[in-house]
Specification:
The structure holds two protein chains of two kinds. By secondary structure, chain A is an alpha+beta fold. Helix content of chain A is about 30%, strand content about 10%. Chain A has helices spanning about 1-15, 15-25, 35-45, 90-95, 110, and strands at about 50-55, 60, 75. Chain B has 17 helices and 23 strands. Chain B has a seven-stranded mixed β-sheet with strand order 9-8-21-20-19-10-11. The termini of chain B are far apart. Classes of the chains: A alpha+beta, B alpha/beta. Chain A: InterPro entries: NDUFA12.
Chain lengths: ~160, ~600
């Protein structure tokens, strides 16, 4: 505990109070007060090894000594308030779930297989996040472009 | 099998033998029914459900066959082929093209075109129907629908004058495919590729809103009320003799009689159907019908084709002639420009000169006609446009006379029409009063007429286009009234042999369009000269007074009087040789011209 306080004081000295407070907010330390889950992750992070950061900014940690096997890899989400497991992209998914020891940054054989023609960018699951995020088929009442298609193509006068 | 023999069909031995046959058939047949377009209407599926074993013993590898490219209409998955050779027989015997055949022996046996080429028949779509498995399926219909989702509507084809019996399969508001219906008197069990694959034209270039041309030359969508008001105002400003009406080649009898009644009430009788020529004599039905009837063409032993290319004008009639030629070695003589035939024929000449020689019995073919028992003379409706057509018809009448082609038991004098509306139009008397009425017209009413030459229409004339496709005439129109296509309305059509048939609506009308006769009826009311019918029954009882044969549906009404009753013609034959009436088999009317599939066909198959 003492080392945490000591490093906090050192950070204030180096960056100044305002920068320190901004960092405190950006890194989610303030969210730790209402969100015990995040607080626990932050406490876990002390002394752990930062293995990598993915393209969304999620941080992947590993700590081998003193941890129960199978709980030694975890992620701190970039999104501090509404995070969920689907924010982990597929290239890190394998490492995080102990499927492989290749991290997402390495060009693992799995990544080489990414199909060029139909492979699309990873997108998190937006279920429950509101109607505007959810996919609606083209005939759905909530699809804004629902009326822009017809079963036939009308003749367009050119002049 | 001998007299008194007992055949047992339900013993365990018979059952086992059937299972054995099915096992052999299924040995090399892939198990891809869930992704096969034939699924649900597959003969092999039915057979294996009825007679097959409930388990397979096959553990070896199945053979695979390379797919063939048969063109834009027929999709092939040749691994599914069970080598029944129905398609080979159809192509050689009915379609008359030697494109398909069997290659290899044993397990290497496969159906294919001997060299890599597409199937060049106008009947190629029929191999889709006769293939018992999913080896040959429809390319435009591939993966579009399952056959149990479709609603079938038994109706009539209007893309040529044959009136083939078809079934329109639709799903919701969309026509998904067109299949033939059995009618031994007309199309047997085949239809042409144009009939089968024109349906995607029904979804493209559709007129769906009434439009008027505003001051800056642009079209503006308006309500029906406003469009009628504009037309009704103009109608009363022009002189009666300056009013002209042209019915299109897809018009039904109901709308044509409405158009004629409407213009007659305005005081004009300048109304005709396109392709019937500007001044056709409709007094004798025998001068514009196929008097032999399509089915009886099989009894003919000598054919004389004058200015007609039946292969492109009426593919089903060509198939009938080919059937006769194959079965009885009937002779075929042809006068007209160089063209494609898929049976033996003699090209006698290209123009009226040969016709004169034949009429004066100077031509070698005259003896064939003289010795013929049942000669069939077929005139093309493309001749209707010629200035000297009366002289041509008179010369043909002379030939028919000495060949004894018109007898009480046989009438070999035939006219092969080009479009579905022609026969009914002439029956209803849609014949213009004056020959050059369109050149002095001030008000032109085009009811689906897209092939009429509009260059002669004066620039200050007011043109109303009523139709279902934005095709050719629509660009000259001042007012556009959207109408329904043949798949969307109930209408009466008469085919080239005089057989009356009716279409039934398969899909709903698109947009704000209306049936043709309803539009004219509504317009007549706005113009203050209300037509006295407002239901199909009422309009049909009006037809009864003009041409009662149009009410005898599915009956062929032969002409009563022979064409020889016509007065003697003194007109001189011109020296111009006959011209082809149909340049492109795949694109002849507004629907087929809007179709993408037909465009592909004409690009690929008519490549010179």
């Amino acid at each position: 505990m003492a080392s945490v306080v000591k490093s906090a004081f050192r950070a204030i000295r180096e960056k100044g109070v305002s920068n320190f407070l901004r960092e405190l907010r950006d890194e989610g330390y303030l969210r730790c007060l209402p969100d015990g889950n995040l607080l626990q992750t932050k406490i876990h992070n002390i002394g752990a090894k930062l293995v990598g950061v993915d393209k969304f900014g999620n941080k992947y940690y590993e700590k081998l000594e003193g941890m129960q096997y199978g709980r030694h890899r975890w992620v701190e989400y970039a999104e501090k308030s509404r995070y969920n497991a689907s924010q982990v992209p597929p290239e890190w998914h394998g490492w995080l779930h102990y499927i492989t020891d290749h991290t997402g940054d390495e060009a693992s054989p799995l990544l080489m297989l990414k199909p060029q023609r139909y492979g699309i960018e990873h997108k998190e699951n937006f279920s429950g996040e509101g109607d505007e995020f959810i996919y609606h088929s083209k005939g759905h009442a909530l699809n804004p472009g629902q009326r822009d298609w017809t079963r036939y193509q009308p003749w367009q006068p050119t002049k | 099998m001998l007299l008194g023999m007992k055949i047992k069909t339900d013993t365990p031995v018979a059952k086992k033998a059937r299972e054995g046959v099915m096992e052999f058939l299924l040995m090399n047949h892939p198990l891809d029914c869930p992704i096969c377009d034939q699924g649900g209407e597959c003969d092999l599926q039915d057979q294996s459900m009825a007679f097959g074993s409930d388990r397979g013993r096959f553990t070896e590898m199945k053979r695979s066959v390379v797919d063939k490219n048969l063109g834009p209409l027929v999709k092939t998955v040749m691994t599914r082929c069970i080598q029944c050779t129905r398609c080979v027989r159809f192509a050689t015997e009915v379609a008359g093209v030697q494109d398909l055949g069997m290659l290899g022996r044993g397990s290497g046996e496969e159906i294919g075109t001997y060299v890599e080429k597409v199937m060049t028949s106008e009947l190629s779509g029929n191999v889709i129907d006769i293939c018992p498995v999913g080896a040959l399926t429809s390319k435009p219909f591939a993966f579009k629908a399952r056959n149990w989702e479709l609603k079938g509507t038994e109706t009539i084809d209007v893309t040529d004058a044959v009136g083939s019996n078809i079934r329109i399969d639709s799903r919701g508001p969309e026509v998904m495919r067109i299949l033939p219906r059995l009618n031994e008197d007309i199309n047997e069990e085949w239809i042409s590729d144009k009939t089968r694959f024109c349906y995607d034209g029904l979804k493209r270039q559709r007129l769906n809103d009434p439009m008027i041309r505003v001051a800056d030359g642009r079209f503006k969508p308006v309500s029906w009320r406003d469009a009628f008001a504009v037309v009704a105002e103009v109608v009363h400003q022009v002189k009666p003799e300056e009013i002209v009406g042209v019915a299109g080649q897809l018009s039904d009898a109901e709308s044509m009689i409405a158009l004629k009644d409407f213009l007659n009430r305005l005081g004009s009788n300048n109304v005709w159907c396109e392709r019937n020529g500007s001044h056709h004599d409709a007094d004798l039905r025998s001068t514009y019908l196929m008097n032999t009837s399509i089915a009886d063409l099989e009894k003919a032993d000598v054919f004389l084709l004058i200015g007609t290319q039946p292969r492109v004008e009426a593919a089903m009639i060509n198939a009938r002639i080919r059937k006769t030629v194959r079965a009885t070695n009937a002779k075929v003589g042809y006068i007209g420009p160089e063209t494609n035939f898929n049976y033996d024929h003699q090209h006698l000449g290209t123009g009226p000169q040969t016709l004169i020689e034949l009429a004066e019995r100077r031509h070698p073919f005259s003896s064939a006609l003289l010795n013929a028992k049942n000669p069939a003379i077929i005139l093309g409706a493309g001749l209707f446009d010629r200035k000297d057509k009366d002289a041509i018809f008179f010369a043909v009448g002379t030939i028919a006379e000495y060949a004894n082609a018109i007898r009480p038991d046989w009438n070999g004098y035939n006219v092969l029409l080009l479009s579905a509306a022609q026969a009914a139009a002439l029956d209803l008397g849609l014949v213009p009063e004056s020959e050059n009425s369109i050149e002095s017209a001030k008000f032109v009413y085009l009811m689906g007429a897209d092939d009429v030459n509009l260059e002669k229409v004066p620039s200050d004339a007011f043109v109303v286009y009523q139709g279902h496709h934005g095709d050719q005439s629509v660009y000259r129109a001042n007012v556009i009234l959207p109408a329904s296509a043949f798949s969307e309305k109930e209408g009466t059509y008469e085919n080239t042999e005089g057989c009356t048939q009716q279409t039934l609506p398969a899909v709903p009308i698109v947009g704000d369009a209306r049936d043709d006769w309803k539009i004219i009826r509504a317009l007549s009311e706005v113009s203050g000269i209300q037509l006295p019918y407002d239901s199909l029954e009422a309009i049909r009882s009006r037809i009864r007074t003009v041409a009662p044969n149009l009410l005898h549906v599915d009956e062929r009404e032969p002409a009563t009087f022979p064409p020889s009753l016509k007065p003697k013609v003194t007109q001189k034959l011109s020296q111009d040789s006959f011209r082809t009436a149909v340049e492109n088999f795949y694109m002849t009317d507004s629907i087929t011209r809007a179709s993408k599939i037909m465009a592909q066909c004409s690009a690929l198959l008519l490549k010179k």
